[in-house]
Structure formats: structure tokens, C-alpha cells
Amino acid sequence: MNIPSNLKYTKDHEWISVEGDLAIVGITDFAQKELGDIVFIEVETLDETLDAEETFGTIEAVKTVSDMFMPVSGTVTEFNEALADAPETVNKDPYGKGWIIKIKMSDASELNNLLDANAYKSLIEG
Description:
CATH architecture: Beta Barrel
Mean pLDDT: 97
Strand order of the largest sheet: 1-2-3-9-8-5
Low-confidence stretches: none
Number of domains: 1
Order of helices and strands: EEEHEEEEEHHEH
Number of helices: 4
Largest sheet: 6 strands, antiparallel
CATH superfamily: RNA polymerase II/Efflux pump adaptor protein, barrel-sandwich hybrid domain
Strand content: 25-35%
CATH class: Mainly Beta
Distance between the termini: 14 Å
Number of strands: 9
Radius of gyration: 13 Å
Shape: globular
């Protein structure tokens, strides 16, 4: 199980990578394995400002559809358009080319509410 130590995680299996007040968000390796083959990703919140834990989109796999949640509050500034044609990229490279959105964070202190790699590992290992 790949859990990069430089990222923060939510209990809902999103990851966030921070660069200044901008952040990149995706789903974890654990989440993509649980979902199985991803066939469609929908993000209708582009240019919207959302609170932490609000739904920013949905991810559809062969067997289920799941909501994706904002790890911190902010404005959705970009959707990874490559996923429109190749949603399976999230299965192949969840922490790289499979990123889902970029956000401009409203309050960076909310990062303190997220899990580090060790806490996330403990969560998924039960």
C-alpha cells in the first residue's frame, strides 16, 4: 500500500499536496483499490468555493459511485481534464497523473485537522 509521507489525508480517503496557498487533491491508493476499475469522474464544482468536507465531485467505478470530499475549504480552480478521457489514470497513478482537482485554500490552518501518513495508515489497517 502506497502512502506517501509528504501528503495529508482525510478519513474519507482523499489526499492533499500543498504548494503555498494552492493544493492538489486526489484519492488514495487504498481508495482506488477499494473502488476497483474507475470508469468516470465528475467534478461540477469548478470555480466554486466549498467548505472542508463538502462534496466536490463523484467518482464512478464498475461496482459503485462515491462522493469525493474537500479536505480543506477553498475554491476549486482546476479539474484534471485528462481524466475525462482516461479515468483509469486514477487507478494507475493516484498520487501523480491521477490527481483530480486543484484548489486555492481559504484557511491553511485546516491542514492541521487532517491525518499524516502514519495516522492514515492506522485508519486503513484498523
